[in-house]
Amino acid sequence: MTAWVLPTVRATSWTPLAGVAVCLAVASALAAHGGAWPGTLTGVATAAVAAAVVAGLRDPAAALLAAVPTSHAVRRARRLALLLPAGFGLWLAAVGGPLLGLLALTTSGLAVAVWAGVPLGVAAPVLWVITARAVDIDWDPRPELVTVAAGAALWMGRNR
Amino acid sequence: MIEAIALTKSYGGTRAVDDVTLSADRGVIGLLGPNGAGKTSLLRMAATVLAPDEGSLRLLGLDPGRADERVQIRRRLGYLPQSPGLYPGFTPYDMVDYVAVLKEHTDRERRRHEVRRVLEAVTLQDVMHRKIRALSGGMKQRVALACALVGQPDLLVLDEPANGLDPDQRLGLRSLLSAAPTVLMATHNISEVSALCQQVYVMFTGRVRFAGTPAELAGLAHGRVWEDDRQDPDAVRSWLTPTGSYRHLGDPPSGAAVVDPTLDDGYLLLARMEHAP
Ligand SMILES: Nc1ncnc2c1ncn2[C@@H]1O[C@H](COP(=O)(O)OP(=O)(O)O)[C@@H](O)[C@H]1O
Ligand SMILES: [Mg+2]
User: Fold this and answer.
1) Among A6, A10, A42, which Cα is nearest to A24's?
2) Ligand closest in space to the Cα of B42
3) Does ligand 1 come within 6 angstroms of the Cβ of B169?
4) Per UniProt, which keywords does this protein have (chain A) (predicted)?
5) Could you tell me if the CB of B205 is within 6 A of ligand 1?
6) Mean pLDDT, chain A, whole residue set
7) Which residues are registered as beta bridge partners of B29?
8) Residue B67 to residue B200: CA distance in whole angstroms
9) What is the pTM of this model?
């Protein structure tokens, strides 16, 4: 196995994703009891998973590692290679359905994190879904378009 | 090794580093100055972490502004930031090993040797398999120092490396640093500078106000330090010494008992001139 995998797994912040997993498990159990997963909660659940993936990028040792030859971009990509499958797997197990909405929210959160810092990146998907519900609009109107745009922003900010 | 010309870095309206020119070849170069003087910002530029707004910077003969050359510099650089975070769930061995992986030490056996070498250099071999969260502040600082030492860097950039170390560990740090080719180090500890540094730079509010040898910095106070049994209100600074007499800085009155200045005297006088120009 490549030498970076194990320490990267251990250095990644898994607590947010684990917390969301527990919440989703409880919600799923309640939904099973009541008959079905309440449709209005899908957006919130999706945003929570997206936010937890972004929160996994938080790195307490960032300052110490800032001047190593393996760049920040590569280290972040390695974390995402672990966080994204875990987050998407969790979402498929607990919520299910087409992945595009989750992809749009996660990519947007990551783009915000890269340009404005991890805390704002975590807040972005949650704030968006809450706002959409408050003003009563669809939280994923054009997920493929959002994914492409956010993906482009993420790519442009990859070395930040 | 380090060639900085007219470096400038601003945050919003604050000029953290203002027109700094610095050149360092071999040996230990000390950076003194009060909090907020711009030492950390300057060191972050010297560690390729922060890009200067203006000026030119060359490290190890290479340009840190170019991505390819920056990687080459980083392969030969060790950096200890002012507040080095660590992973609390890692052991010192895990932490240093991870840094060695990121420093491209791919051969497992050689990496193991290197990790042990640096952990022994900072005398952490006895606790290297304990969780970092259970270590003392001084031990954590030495874990971070060990990370900077991985791969025997040609250039060490250290931001207050003696932070949290006890006197014995400070002494150990001295012998470590004299083994590296070029060290640029910010410190608040003036005795460290007199013991270690071939060159010293003193910064105030972003600017270099003194560059020279420690002896030259002490020499700034030549003929301007005197001792007397009574406190002289005209001195720019005065304090009671353990012998019971007062040590004064400033323009001595005629007939005063002028004494040899120390590095502290030179630094304090410089700081005084800075505040009351
Ligand atoms: N990231 C930052 N954002 C805004 N201001 C900063 C930042 N880093 C440093 N500064 C400001 O720049 C000045 C120099 O700070 P610093 O380089 O940390 O000095 P020192 O290490 O000598 O204490 C201070 O006024 C500080 O408040
Ligand atoms: Mg500082």
Assistant:
1) A42
2) 1
3) no
4) Membrane, Signal, Transmembrane, Transmembrane helix
5) no
6) 91
7) B184, B199
8) 30
9) 0.91
User: Could you report the per-residue pLDDT of B225-261, keeping only the tens digit for each?
Assistant: 999 999 988 898 899 999 999 999 999 998 888 999 9
Size of chain A, expressed as the number of residues it contains: 160
Integer-rounded Cα radius of gyration of chain B: 21
Measured distance between the N- and C-terminal CA atoms of chain A, rounded to whole angstroms: 29
Q: What is the CATH number of domain B1-76+154-209?
A: 3.40.50.300
Q: Does A70 touch chain B (CB under 8 A)?
A: yes
What is the location of CATH 3.40.50.300 in chain B? 1-76+154-209
Furthest CA-CA distance within chain A: 54
Two tokens at B55?
Answer: 């000026």
- Local structure of A32: helix, strand or coil: helix
Q: Do the beta carbons of residue B182 and residue B154 sit within 8 Å?
A: yes
- A4 with B47: Cβ contact below 8 A: no
> What ipTM was assigned to the predicted interfaces of this complex?
0.90
- Chain B partners of A4 at a C-beta cutoff of 8 Å? 101-102
Q: Are B101 and A75 in contact (CB under 8 A)?
A: no
- Min Cα distance B199 → chain A (Å) is 24
Residue A1 has pLDDT above 70, yes or no: no
Give the tokens for residue B14.
């604050």
Q: Kindly report, residue by residue over A87-132, the tens digit of the pLDDT.
A: 999 999 988 878 899 999 999 999 999 999 999 999 999 999 999 8
CB B156 within 8 A of CB B180: yes
Q: How far apart are CA B41 and CA B49, in angstroms?
A: 9
- CB distance B104 to B75 below 8 Å: yes
Residue written as token pair 């799923």: A28
Q: Which domain holds residue A105?
A: 5-156
Residue of B nearest to A75 (CA): B102
Report the alpha-carbon distance of residue A118 to residue B254 in Å, rounded: 64
How would DSSP label each residue in B115-169?
HHHHHHHTT-GGGTTS-GGGS-HHHHHHHHHHHHHTT--SEEEEESTTTT--HHH
Where does the pLDDT of residue B123 fall: very low under 50, low under 70, confident under 90, or very high at 90 and above?
very high
Tell me the longest C-alpha to C-alpha distance in chain B. 70
Residue A105 token pair: 């929210």
Q: Which residues does residue B212 pair with via DSSP β-bridges, in sequence order?
A: B200
d(CA B189, CA B28): 14
Phi, psi of B124 (to 5 degrees): -115, 10
Assess whether the C-beta atom of B74 lies below 6 angstroms from ligand 1: no
